[in-house]
Amino acid sequence: MFEKIFYEFFLLNLNEFPNINIDFEINVLLFFIAVAICICSVIVTLYRSALQRLIKQLKRLGASDEESARTLGEMGLTKSLFVKMALSREGRLTRIVGRVGETIYTYEEMLELTSRKGGYRHEKVDFDTARFYIRADRADDAKNIIENYGTSMLRTGLYCVMVIAIYVCLALIMPEILSLLDGMLGSF
């Protein structure tokens, strides 16, 4: 019985409908899309949580200028892959969080660097010794991250359950949707 349901719904092939007649299993595609959405939502949740944790630690430790800057070790974030990824490339976080000794280029200098052979490459960061702080002119952005980046794995889990439930509902009604589409194609 389970095998029949599996083949009838999960492995529903478009070539079973004479007017569509394409060898493609639509519900398999929908399943992989649902799984990809769930994986992406978990990654985004972990990323946002890591950014919020970094900003909170910098605020809590008073790292607001180069003299009071802190290392990831002092903040207890040496093992956070998402924090290291965010700090090692240009982005929103690197505009808010400064690094002691970093080179800041003007727009014209950046254009010149990117036009050279090989292009511009972001400098490597030694996370064992690099010290970070919240830039004074971006304190409002840091406050915004602390207030609005609060995420919950429970909420993400419930979101994933909802996505899978939507997939199951679509998979169950897909034969009717395809029959309707097949009938419409047959009338042309």
Molecular structure report:
This protein is mainly alpha-helical. The protein contains 8 helices and 3 strands. The model has no long low-confidence stretch (mean pLDDT about 85).
Rg over CA atoms: 25 Å
> Helix content range of the residues, please?
55-70%
The SSE string, one letter per element, is HHEHHHEHEHH
Tell me the β content: under 5%
Which of globular, elongated, flat, extended, rod-shaped describes the shape? Answer: elongated
Taking strands numbered 1, 2, ... along the chain, how are they ordered across the largest sheet? 1-3-2
Itemize the secondary structure elements and their pairings.
Elements: H1 2-10, H2 26-60, E1 70-71, H3 72-75, H4 81-87, H5 92-96, E2 97-99, H6 107-115, E3 131-134, H7 139-148, H8 153-186
Antiparallel strand pairs: 1-3, 2-3
Helix pairs in contact: 2-7, 2-8
Keywords:
60% helix; elongated; mainly alpha; 8 helices; single chain; 3 strands; 188 residues; three-stranded antiparallel β-sheet
Summarize the structure.
The protein has 188 residues and is mainly alpha-helical. It is built from 8 helices and 3 strands; from the N terminus they run ααβαααβαβαα.
